[in-house]
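User: I'm writing a short report section on ligand binding and want a predicted complex to refer to. Could you take this sequence and zinc ion and write out the structure as tokens? A short remark afterwards would be nice.
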Amino acid sequence: MDCIFCKIIAGEIPSAKVYEDDDILAFKDINPIAPVHVIVIPKTHIASMDEIRPENSAAVAKIFEKIPEIARLAGCENGYRVVSNCGADGGQTVPHLHFHLLGGMALPWDVFAK
Ligand code: AMP
Ligand code: ZN
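Assistant: Sure. The structure tokens for the complex follow:
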């Protein structure tokens, strides 16, 4: 499958791994927008938040069960933020479900304020 994150899972594209187990991979974002910027993905290909179903949601639950540990491993000491961009309006650029784990600074909330 021509999916960049599936290729990272397969080891065909290198990544700076933060955490890995049978179901989940977490690696540093190649273009970080915060001091801590980790991408957390299920190893099964799910295209986006919009494709989460009862049949595949166990992978999503596993990600959220592990996020506190991944955040600690990544160096978040004062909290963090988890974001998933979905579809065109959400700004999704890679069509494999992923969660951005952001931290290492006090993150502004009003990023869209005009
Ligand atoms: P999104 O725009 O929400 O789909 O997020 C995709 C993210 O993947 C972006 O923040 C990219 O910087 C990141 N990204 C794309 N290719 C790679 C890669 N090869 N290694 C690490 N992060 C990547
Ligand atoms: Zn994929």
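A remark for your report: The chain has three helices and five strands. The mean pLDDT is 96.
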